[in-house]
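Final report, closing paragraph on structural work. Over the funding period we assembled a curated collection of sequence-structure pairs, and we close with a single example.
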Amino acid sequence: MFIDSFLPTGKVYFAVILASVFMFIKLNKKLKVLAIIPLIIIAQDRGLYIDNPNLKISMPQLNVKQDQKWMKSNLSNVIEKTLF
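Its predicted structure, as stored:
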């Protein structure tokens, strides 16, 4: 839910975020500032930084005509062309 966010991920942080939202809704106008303070505190915690893995992903080209692709008699040919 909070991936690529300014706020860290985790169950405890999620509970703090929910508590802050609840406080913001329930408190009167002058005390709503208190609901923002926990969010500022947890935004300072950057957590762990994980490098992007070195993956190479490719999309195969399926050069099989649509009318031949869905025929049961051509199943072995279609598999052979696309996978091998």
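Residues 59 and 82 are 11 Å apart (CA to CA). Helices lie at 11-26, 32-44, 66-69, 75-83. We thank the funder for supporting this effort.
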